[in-house]
Amino acid sequence: MASFPMPDRPKNSRRLLALALGLGLASAALGTATPASARSAAEAPARTSAAGYVGSAESSGNKAFFDAVLNSVAKRQAAQPSLKVVTVYYNASQAPSFRSQISSAASIWNSSVSNVKLQATSGGADFAYYEGNDSRGSYASTNGHGSGYIFLDYAQNRQYDSIRVAAHETGHVLGLPDHYSGPCSELMSGGGPGTSCTNRYPNSTERARVNQLWVNGLAKAVARLSKTG
């Protein structure tokens, strides 16, 4: 999995802190709304691999998530070959506290790349956002059954720039792996540069990579579906 990991703490204290923050602490630092009810990671779909904001990266997990989203979009493109714009649909209804941050993250990516666009939907989507408490922090995940989702952790989004967290995790949807050793100017460096990093935009290398992935990768996926269909 790829994620924005939490600083190391004793296991029990991490759980207590995450629960306390999720249930009632003020969230003015990053503008994250206090949740009406504290969810847990268990309420999100089961995950087989994930990529965290601060934790160790699992490149296979990131690839599995990207492939799941890519194949979902490819099926739609193959069924409607006249579509001119490649659109990835997301559903944020399960992350109401982060509605603004998710919208900002989508706008950032839509203004940064040209070969794929993100669009909100209230119905069936290529991936979804969830929110809650998880001592592992925020992450992008796949359940191993053709779908992916992003989980946004309450406590971590108060500690780090919340829009950067959302934009970083959305970068996994578009095919980018974590690079924690990178500078703040790299969006996919995640929590590596520390809590003071507030850059929310992908750099030129990251933008170019996403554009390349969605031209070549989507074409291959559609061709593969056409042969098997």
Automatic annotation (TrEMBL):
Top-level taxonomic group: Bacteria
GO molecular function list: hydrolase activity
Alphabetical keyword list: Disulfide bond, Hydrolase, Metal-binding, Metalloprotease, Protease, Secreted, Signal, Zinc
Catalytic activity: Hydrolyzes proteins with a preference for Tyr or Phe in the P1' position. Has no action on amino-acid p-nitroanilides
Requisite cofactors: Zn(2+)
InterPro entries: MetalloPept_cat_dom_sf, Peptidase_M7, TAT_signal
UniProt subcellular location: Secreted
Documented EC number(s): 3.4.24.77
Record carries keyword Disulfide bond: yes
Pfam families the UniProt entry points to: Peptidase_M7
Primary location recorded for the protein, binned into one broad class: secreted
Signal peptide range in chain numbering: 1-38
Homology family: Belongs to the peptidase M7 family.
Protein known as: Extracellular small neutral protease
Source species of the chain: Streptomyces albidocamelliae
Encoding gene per record: snpA
